[in-house]
Write a structure and sequence with these properties.
The protein has one domain. It has five helices and eleven strands; from the N terminus they run ββααβββββββαβαβα. A hairpin with a 4-residue loop joins strand 6 and strand 7.
């Protein structure tokens, strides 16, 4: 097998109707797998993916498919590079109290999915960070699909580089002290544009 045969897969967007097959017979549908694997939208992993999708929707960048190991979470039509982080007060599991809110802001080495190589440079590669807080605090009515239960904080990456150069996490109070643009979902595109274009 040549290395040309081992290049990146071209990932087509799926509909959910695709069959799961065995010996030519349909054993189920992809949508059934999605329902089984992805219904818990309050756990850290799926909430984070959902947050990325919501931001991509707001920025007009949700038409393709998600790249798991890209150097940034979202690349917009305007060529803005956006990193998305999420946090929530409520979790899927039983809690004795609300979770404390903190977000990861750690620098990282870069991975290029097209070449299968990584960069030794450890840095933040985005232009903008979007911190997505599922702020709802009533577990009985929690619905991560309800965008009114979310608050978004948008900050130019350069502010983190200047004020928190080696910091790996940031608490909500510390983030707010950096004067991010706070917005609801309808205002998210405008907030990202302000930060990406330096008009914040």
């Amino acid at each position: 097998m040549s290395t040309a045969d081992l290049g990146p897969l071209v990932i087509a967007r799926r509909s959910g109707s695709e069959p799961i097959r065995a010996k030519g017979e349909t054993m189920g549908r992809l949508s059934e797998f999605w329902s089984w694997a992805c219904s818990d939208l309050a756990n850290n992993t799926m909430r984070g993916v959902l947050a990325e999708y919501r931001v991509a929707m707001a920025l007009g960048a949700a038409t393709g498919t998600r790249t798991e190991w890209d150097t940034v979470d979202i690349r917009t039509p305007e060529q803005w590079r956006v990193e998305v982080k999420s946090a929530a007060y409520l979790q899927s599991w039983a809690q004795s109290q609300l979770s404390e809110i903190s977000f990861s802001i750690a620098s990282a080495s870069g991975w290029d999915a097209q070449t299968g190589t990584s960069s030794a440079d450890v840095l933040r590669r985005s232009d903008v960070y979007v911190f997505c807080l599922l702020h709802h605090q009533d577990k009985q009515t929690l619905d991560p699909l309800d965008l009114d239960q979310w608050t978004f904080y948008v900050l130019p990456t350069r502010v983190l580089d200047e004020r928190c150069p080696s910091q790996k996490t940031i608490r909500l109070s510390s983030l707010q002290s950096l004067a991010p643009v706070e917005t609801d979902f309808p205002g998210l595109h405008k907030a990202v544009a302000r930060c990406a274009e330096g008009t914040r």
